[in-house]
Amino acid sequence: MEFLLDYGLFLAKIVTFVAAIIALLVVVKAVNGKGPKGELEVTDLTEKNKETVKHMEAHLHDDAYLKALHKLEKKENKAKNKSSEKAMKKAAKAGKLESAREPHLFVLEFKGSIDAKEVSSLREEVTAILAVAKEGDEVLLKLETGGGMIHGYGLASSQLDRIRSAGLPLTIAVDKVAASGGYMMACIADKIVSAPFAIVGSIGVIAQLPNFNKLLKKHDIDYEQLTAGEFKRTLTIFGENTEKAREKFKQELEETHGLFKDFIREHRPNLDVDSVATGEHWFGTKAKELGLVDEIKTSDDLIVDACKEKTVLAIQYVQKKKLTDKLAGVAGEAAENVFMRLLSKGQRPFM
């Protein structure tokens, strides 16, 4: 009897503990569901660069030089502010109050995953820039992706096309890789800049999936798949694939590849697309010879140079992580991505 009483007490504690955790999760989820899904972060890279230079100069020059340099900078800033204030007063009297700000370079970063889910942040960043951009402003996108789902990278390319349509010069810098769907994004730019050993190209389409039909038959397991429409599903993971289904799927791959090539021709008319649309990739130096990129440089070179004559702002839309993402961790997310890739490759091609 005493054992049953202790066991019941222990069980009650477990139930209470589990109920408390569930209640906490519900509350946290409710709190996370309220308010904005993310926020826009703006970092002044020009000021950051100046601070770096000052820090280095403090170790290179004596106190007398640094004091004189500080005095000169203070004098220049005072003159600049006075000139700006005078111009604003004059504009205000004329009833045309406009900011006389210097040209800006807006820096974006896109590190793409298989499903290009980062496009949700990109669209917020592009919208923010277009809301304040003026003549003389430019956009630099630091791109790093090996491509993935067609619809995701198609939407990402459309977001970049909004910048071009607004008349803002767009430069895309590839420091590591912009392949397949990544190059689809890159070709939107007015100028593509690549690091010497960055991977560029892979203008092709691929689809691959395992088939477990023989394994199921070996263990006498039936698999049924019902569809309405002859080609609602072509290749399948568990069913028996027919030659007709393979031919249809291959036809879809060729059609997608044709659309990919036409897209590149439209945005880079001087490129011999047929000679590079073989699915191969090249390093930056060779990519420049082939016309896939325009210049060999890193994004760091572009930003440092721009800091000398423009105000350079890094724009990043940071989304709040869902509670499930925080609890699952990296391992859970990796497993989810593998499963999603396996599932999706049976439905549509990748680029």
Label this structure with key terms.
single chain; 351 residues; alpha/beta; 9-stranded mixed sheet; 15% strand; extended
Describe the structure.
It is a single chain. This protein has helices at 2-32, 45-57, 63-93, 119-132, 150-165, 181-186, 213-218, 243-267, 273-276, 284-290, 299-307, 323-344; strands spanning 38-44, 104-111, 138-145, 170-179, 191-194, 199-201, 281-283, 295-296, 311-319. With 351 residues, the protein is of the alpha/beta class. Strands 1, 2, 3, 4, 5, 6, 7, 8 and 9 form a nine-stranded mixed sheet that branches. The radius of gyration is 28 Å and the shape is extended. 25% of the residues are buried.
Q: What's the structural blueprint in terms of helices and strands?
A:
Elements: H1 2-32, E1 38-44, H2 45-57, H3 63-93, E2 104-111, H4 119-132, E3 138-145, H5 150-165, E4 170-179, H6 181-186, E5 191-194, E6 199-201, H7 213-218, H8 243-267, H9 273-276, E7 281-283, H10 284-290, E8 295-296, H11 299-307, E9 311-319, H12 323-344
Parallel strand pairs: 2-3, 2-9, 3-4, 4-5, 4-6, 5-8
Antiparallel strand pairs: 1-9, 6-7
Give a concise summary.
This protein has helices spanning 2-32, 45-57, 63-93, 119-132, 150-165, 181-186, 213-218, 243-267, 273-276, 284-290, 299-307, 323-344; strands at residues 38-44, 104-111, 138-145, 170-179, 191-194, 199-201, 281-283, 295-296, 311-319. The N and C termini lie far apart (68 Å). The longest helix has 31 residues, at 2-32.
Provide the succession of SSEs.
HEHHEHEHEHEEHHHEHEHEH
General form: extended
Percent helix, as a range, is 40-55%
Secondary structure class reads alpha/beta
Write down the overall mean pLDDT. Answer: 82
Number of strands: 9
Calculate the terminal CA-CA distance, rounded to whole Å: 68 Å
Proportion of residues in extended strands: 15-25%
Q: Could you list the spans in which at least 5 consecutive residues all have pLDDT below 50? A: none
- Report the sheet with the most strands, covering strand number, pairing sense and barrel closure: 9 strands, mixed
Radius of gyration: 28 Å
Per DSSP, the total helix count is 12
